[in-house]
Amino acid sequence: MRTGDVLPPLTLAITRTLIVAGAIASRDYQDVHHDPELARRKGSPDIFMNILTTNGLVGRYLTDHFGPTAVLRKLSIRLGAPNYPGDTMVLTGTIEQLDGDTATVRVIGTNGIGAHVTGTAVLTLGGER
Amino acid sequence: MNGRTAIVGIGATEFSKDSGRSELRLAVEAVRAALDDAGLAPADVDGLVTFTMDTSPEITVAQAAGMGELSFFSRVHYGGGAACATVQQAALAVAAGVAEVVVCYRAFNERSGRRFGSGVQRREPSAEGAALGWVMPFGLLTPASWVAMAAQRYLHTYGLTPESAFGPVAVTARRHAATNPAAYFHGRPITLADHASSRWIAEPLRLLDCCQETDGGQAIVVTSLERARDLPHPPAVVAAAAQGSGRGQEQMTGFHTGDLTGLSESAVVARQLWRTTGLGPADIDVGILYDHFTPFVLMQLEEYGFCARGEAAYFVAEDRLPLNTHGGQLGEAYLHGMNGIAEGVRQIRGTSVNQVAGAARALVTAGTGVPTSGLVLTADG
Amino acid sequence: MHTDEDLTERLKAFEGRPAATEGTGKDPVNLPMIRHWCEALGDTNPAYSGPDAIAPPTMLQAWTMGGLSGHTGRSAAYDELLGLLDAAGCTSVVATDCEQEYDRPLRPGDEITFDTVIESVSDRKTTKLGSGHFVTTRTDIRVGPDLAGTHRFRILKYAPAARPEKPPRPRPVVNRDNAGFWEGVRDRKLLLQRCTACAAPRHPWLPGCNACGGLDWDTVEASGEGTVYSYVVMHHPPFPAFDPPYAVALIELAEGVRMLGNVIGVPYDKVRIGLPVRVEFREHDDESTLPVWRVTG
Predict the structure, then answer these.
(1) Do B and A touch (≥3 CB pairs < 8 Å)?
(2) Of C264, C235, C82, which is closest to residue C157 (Cα–Cα)?
(3) Does B184 qualify as catalytic in the annotation?
(4) Chain B contacts of C246, Cβ < 8 Å?
(5) What is the fold, at CATH topology level, of the domain defined by A6-124?
(6) Ranges for the Thiolase C-terminal domain (chain B) (predicted)?
(7) Minimal CB count within 10 Å: which of B31, B309, C19, C149?
(8) Which of B216, B178, B198, B159 lies closest to B20 in space, CA to CA?
C-alpha cells in the first residue's frame, strides 16, 4: 500500500428503502428523510439521505476495504449534492498519506447530480482497538 | 400523372446543429445542388414547391438561385406531412403541362433557430390556434407529448413495453446512420440498452425515440419521364404520389376520434398508392418511413399493411424490411422528410451508402399525426 | 426591524454557550440498534457482531439522538439561537458537515452522556439553497468519565432562495366558435355541443357536425364522469408554468367524447388507463379556470 493508491469504488443504489432505513436506524425522524409530500412542501423534489447515513456509508466503505482490524480514528465529511431516491452513488477513495500504521484517506461519493460527499478519514491499520 | 414523371436530381446542404447562414441561403444552396445533380441549369426551372412552414418564398429562391420566370408555384400545409406532397404537386404540374422542371425544397435552421421541440405556449384565436387551445392549458405543449398520448394507448392496447416496442426502430435507424457519412450520428450506433436507459422526454417516449433537430436544406428536382431519360442519373419514377387526411383529422392533437392505435391519414395514402401501382407491401424493396417519433413508424408499417396491427415492433426487430437506410430523421437529419425522399431516389439509382441490392421499388412517406403524403418510387422500365 | 449586522452580532453572542448539558443517551449502546444500523447500511463488518462486538464508530451521533420524544439536556441558549434564526426567516435547516474523532470504541452496555457547545455562528452566507447562517456545535460524548469521541456538526439555517415567480399556464385559445365552452368552465359547468339535427354530442367545439354536417347545435352539461383513455407524463423540456414530471390525461367522458386535462388525487406516476375520474374546477390565477379530473376509484 502506498500514498496515491486508489481504493476500488463502491457503487450504491440510492433506494428509497436505503434512505428511510438509514434515517430510522440513526434515529433521525426529520420528515425530509422519509415523507416525500412534506419534503416537496419544503422545496425538495423528493426525500433525501441524512448526513448520518452518509457518514455511516463512508465508514462502511473504508472498513470494507481495510478489513475488520482497521480502526477508524477520525472522519470528517462535507455534503454537497443531495442523494435522492433512484440515484446511484459511487464512493471512491485515495490514500493521501501513510505514516506507520496510520493512513489518511480522501473519500468522494459522486451521484448523478455531482459530489454528494467529500471527506477525509484517518485509520489505524491492523491496530489494536 | 402516375408513372409519367421522375425525380432526376437531389441535393442537400450539410446537416448540422448550427448552419451559420440564413434559411434562404440554405434553400438556394440545396436547390442549386439538386439542379447540378440533375444536370440542369437554373434557367431550366419553371416551377417551385415548398412547405407553407418554409420561410423562403418561391420568388425569392428563384431570384437568388438565378432562375427566370415561373409558371407554377405551390405550397403544401401541415408541417412534415407536406414532404411527399411537394413531389405530388410537382408531378401533377408536369403531367398537366403547366410546368416542365419543378424543384421541391425545404430549408430551415430548426436547431439553431426556432426549435419545434421547445414547444408552444401561445396561439392566435384562429381555427388552427383554437385546436391547440384544447391542450395547451394542461401542459401538453410539444410534438413529443402529442405523439406520446397515442403511443401510450398503442402500448396499452397491444400489451407492449416502450423498450421492446420502440427500441428496435431507434436501433435500426442509428445502425444505418452509423455507416452514412452525411448523417449527424455517423459512427455512433446505439443498442437497445442505450435506448432503454435514455431519459424520459414525454413518457412513454424517451430521448432516443425522438428525431433530432437539424439545420439544413434539401431539394428534389422533378420532370417528365421522357426528359428524365436524357439526364445523367437513372430516373426514379414517381409511380404513385398521394395525400391523405382521415375523418376528423387534426394536427398532432388528434385525440378526439379513433382508437389512437393507428394513423387514419396513412391509411388514406396507402390505399391510393397500392391501388394506383397495383403493388402491395410485399413488392416493396425498401421503406423510408417518416420517423419524427418511433411509435409512428410502427403504426405506419401496420397502416401500409407490412404486418398485422400490434406486430410492427417484431417486424422491425426481425429486419423484415430494409427501413430508413439513410438513418432516418432519428439518425441522419430532421429535414421534415425531404431527406427521406432523397434516400428513396438513391436506392432506386443504386447509390445509397446502405444499398439494398437490386432495389427497384421504394415506399417513401411524410409526417404523420397530421395530414400526410406518400410516394412509390420505381426504377424505369 | 433589525439589520443583518445587528442580527449577526446577536447570533455571535451565542458562541461558546452550551447547546446541551449532561445529555444522556436514550438507550445504552446495544446490539439490536447496532444490528439495525448494519442492516440498513449493508455493513457486514464482523467487528460489529458477536460476543466482542463494538458499535460502528460512525454511529457516534446516533446514540445522542432525541428521536421522536425529543432531546435531553438541550439548553435554552440553543433553542433561543434557533428561534432567533427562525424569526429572521431562516426557517429551513440542512446538515452540511460532520467531523468525528473516535477516542475509544463504544460497546453494548455503555451508557453515554454528552455535552454540546455552540462553537461558532457564521456571518450571513448566500448559498445555492438560500441565504443563512452556519451553526457549528461540538459534542463530547463520554462513558462515565472517559471521552469516547467528539462530534463536530455544522448545519445551515437558511431562508430558502425565492423561486422565480411562476408564470401563468398557457391560456385557452378562445374564439367565436368555442367561447361557450370556456364560459361554461368559468361557471363551473362542462358544456358539450350537441347537434340538433342528429343529436351527436361533440368535442372539441366546432360550428358544424362531422357526423351529419348540421350547422345547428345546442349544449348539454356533461355528467362530469369519465375514465382515463390515455395519458402522458411530461418530463422535458421544463415549462416554467408546470413542475415536471406531471401527468396529462385524455379523459373519455360518459357521454362518449374525449377531452384533455390534468388528473388529481394520485401522484403523476400512478395515473393509469381506465382510472375512473370526475370533473372539478380549479382557478389557476385571476383569469383562468380549468377543469381538472379527480380520481374516484
Answers:
(1) no
(2) C82
(3) no
(4) 139
(5) Thiol Ester Dehydrase; Chain A (3.10.129)
(6) 255-372
(7) B309
(8) B216
Cell digits of residue B246? 382521415
Question: What string of DSSP letters covers C145-161?
Answer: TEEEEEEEEEEEEEEEP
- B193: in domain: no
User: Closest Cα to residue B227, out of B345, B352, B94?
Assistant: B94
Domain of B232, CATH number, reads 3.40.47.10
Q: Where are the domains positioned within chain C?
A: 4-160, 179-295
Q: Which of A37, A52, A57, A64 to mutate to test the interface with C (most CBs of C within 10 A)?
A: A52
Q: Could you list the pLDDT tens digit for every one of the 381 residues in chain B?
A: 789 999 999 999 999 999 999 999 999 999 999 999 999 999 999 999 999 999 999 999 999 999 999 999 999 999 999 999 999 999 999 999 999 999 999 999 999 999 998 888 888 999 999 999 999 999 999 999 999 999 999 999 999 999 999 999 999 999 999 999 999 999 999 999 999 999 999 999 999 999 999 999 999 999 999 999 999 999 999 999 999 999 999 999 999 999 999 999 999 999 999 999 999 999 999 999 999 999 999 999 999 999 999 999 999 999 999 999 999 999 999 999 999 999 999 999 999 999 999 999 999 999 999 999 999 999 998
Q: Is B136 on the interface with C (CB under 8 A)?
A: yes
Angle at C277 between CA B139 and CA C270, to 5 degrees: 65
Chain C positions in Cβ-Cβ contact with residue A60 (cut-off 8 Å)? 41-43, 45, 56, 58
Which residues of A sit within 8 Å Cβ distance of C? 12, 18, 21-22, 24-29, 42-43, 50-53, 55-60, 63-64, 68, 71-79, 129
Residue span of the structural domain in which B222 resides? 5-112+215-379
State whether A59 and C56 contact (CB < 8 Å).
Answer: yes
Q: Is position B334 annotated as part of the catalytic site? A: yes
Distance from CA of B262 to the nearest CA of C (A): 14
Specify if B274 maps to a domain.
yes
Q: Which residues of chain A lie closer than 8 angstroms to C61, CB-CB? A: 26, 52, 55
Question: Nearest residue of A to residue C150 by CA position?
Answer: A74
B165–chain C nearest CA distance, Å: 17
The CATH architecture that domain C4-160 belongs to is Roll (3.10)
Q: How many CB atoms lie within 10 A of CB B258?
A: 16
Of C92, C170, C100, C180, the closest CA to residue C132 belongs to C92
Indicate which residue of B78, B154, B184, B290 is catalytic. B290
Q: Is B131 on the interface with C (CB under 8 A)?
A: yes
Q: What is the bridge-based pairing of β-strands C289-295 and C263-264?
A: parallel
Q: Please report, as a single letter, which amino acid is at residue B338.
A: M
